[in-house]
Amino acid sequence: MNGLLSLNRKHIFLADDEVVDPKKYLEESCNPKCVKPLLEYQACVKRIQGDDSGHKHCTGQYFDYWQCIDKCVAPKLFTKLK
Amino acid sequence: MVGGGVIQQILRRKLHSQSLTTPVRSWFSSKNAHVEAGSSGVRAFALLGAGVTGLLSFSTVASADEAEHGLACPDYPWPHDGILSSYDHASIRRGHQVYQQVCASCHSMSLISYRDLVGVAYTEEEAKAMAAEIEVVDGPNDEGEMFTRPGKLSDRLPQPYANESAARFANGGAYPPDLSLITKARHNGQNYVFALLTGYRDPPAGISIREGLHYNPYFPGGAIAMPKMLNDEAVEYEDGVPATEAQMGKDVVSFLSWAAEPEMEERKLMGFKWIFLLSLALLQAAYYRRLKWSVLKSRKLVLDVVN
């Protein structure tokens, strides 16, 4: 992501005047806080890689990760929106 | 599956203890001893079967449950959440624009009329002009024929499909629900709709969605017929606000919240006023009750014992 990005600014613009969605931006910035569930998810992905039965899936770990991200993003998101 | 092994061990131990007690039982009724010995084997097998099926069904139900209920949505700090907070009417206006340009092609809002928008999101002239853009079928004229006319304020918002069957046919069997009450018709409606609209993501490893459906973790089951509709700058706002996905989501949910609960602001004012007044009345009533009862409560009883 190149351009002017700052958590203090209300509208986030890239140098070429393209608008960045604040939710995506916050989700990325919350990634470091949710490393543990992310690693769990990646471990699960690796575990089921060889599986061909179609019954194995990583929904649980996926949900845990996204729940962590959501909890981090939700209080901050609306301050970035009009 | 480790749990399954443990349960099998426990059941085997139970079987052993049962076989130890059968000689005791046979002492009581020697006639039925051989029957009991045979049935205890069947009983143990039944127990084993029950245990294994119980464990299997439990594990499959637990994992199916998560996707079944959908990912729980977070609580967003809506500007109209407070006890005396009103709607953000600029947001409602933008949200109506999003609805009109993005959602109205599939979703009806048949309980809202153009006149409801006056004073909330548009002036009367603006609402009249918007209504006049649509064609409405009106009742029989003097010659007994139905005719079409431009819309008026009293007309409802136009429906994209004639009926549910037409809607399902045009959308692969899925019915795009009417949105007039959607934020009240779903648990934690406002947060749910916002999370759903902005929550389209790649499915987790191991989950594949069939052609025609899309993955959305917030949707119960995970496979929703509606594709991702909110994309950055899909709409150009009149007031120049950048139309990011999150902005459009917030505005359209504000609009939908208003549509479902247009009385909210009046309700909050009324609630605040009457709770305040009734609290004063409560204090007055409490004082009056204690005043009247003071006569009895300050009685003194004297026991005059005569020996």
TrEMBL record, chain A:
Subcellular location: Mitochondrion inner membrane
GO CC entries: mitochondrial inner membrane
Main location: mitochondrion
Disulfide bonds: C30-C72, C44-C58
GO biological process, one term: mitochondrial electron transport, ubiquinol to cytochrome c
Coiled-coil intervals, chain numbering: none
Keywords of the record: Disulfide bond, Electron transport, Membrane, Mitochondrion, Mitochondrion inner membrane, Respiratory chain, Transport
Record's subunit section: Component of the ubiquinol-cytochrome c oxidoreductase (cytochrome b-c1 complex, complex III, CIII), a multisubunit enzyme composed of 10 subunits. The complex is composed of 3 respiratory subunits cytochrome b (MT-CYB), cytochrome c1 (CYC1-1 or CYC1-2) and Rieske protein (UCR1-1 or UCR1-2), 2 core protein subunits MPPalpha1 (or MPPalpha2) and MPPB, and 5 low-molecular weight protein subunits QCR7-1 (or QCR7-2), UCRQ-1 (or UCRQ-2), QCR9, UCRY and probably QCR6-1 (or QCR6-2).
Role this protein plays: Component of the ubiquinol-cytochrome c oxidoreductase, a multisubunit transmembrane complex that is part of the mitochondrial electron transport chain which drives oxidative phosphorylation.
Homology family: Belongs to the UQCRH/QCR6 family.
Protein name as catalogued: Cytochrome b-c1 complex subunit 6
Taxonomic source organism: Brassica carinata
From TrEMBL, chain B:
Gene3D superfamilies reported for this sequence: Cytochrome c-like domain, Cytochrome c1, transmembrane anchor, C-terminal
Binding site residues for heme c: C103, C106, H107, M226
Keyword Iron-sulfur attached: no
Gene Ontology cellular-component annotations: mitochondrial inner membrane
Keywords: Electron transport, Heme, Iron, Membrane, Metal-binding, Mitochondrion, Mitochondrion inner membrane, Respiratory chain, Transmembrane, Transmembrane helix, Transport
Cytochrome c domain segment(s): 90-246
Pfam families hit by this protein: Cytochrom_C1
Xref: PROSITE patterns: CYTC
Chaperone keyword on record: no
Cofactor: heme c
Classification via InterPro entries: Cyt_c-like_dom, Cyt_c-like_dom_sf, Cyt_c1, Cyt_c1_TM_anchor_C
Subcellular location: Mitochondrion inner membrane
Cofactor-binding details, from the entry: Binds 1 heme c group covalently per subunit.
One BP term from GO: mitochondrial electron transport, ubiquinol to cytochrome c
Family, per entry: Belongs to the cytochrome c family.
Quaternary organization: Component of the ubiquinol-cytochrome c oxidoreductase (cytochrome b-c1 complex, complex III, CIII), a multisubunit enzyme composed of 10 subunits. The complex is composed of 3 respiratory subunits cytochrome b (MT-CYB), cytochrome c1 (CYC1-1 or CYC1-2) and Rieske protein (UCR1-1 or UCR1-2), 2 core protein subunits MPPalpha1 (or MPPalpha2) and MPPB, and 5 low-molecular weight protein subunits QCR7-1 (or QCR7-2), UCRQ-1 (or UCRQ-2), QCR9, UCRY and probably QCR6-1 (or QCR6-2).
Name of the protein in question: Cytochrome c domain-containing protein
Annotated organism of origin: Brassica carinata
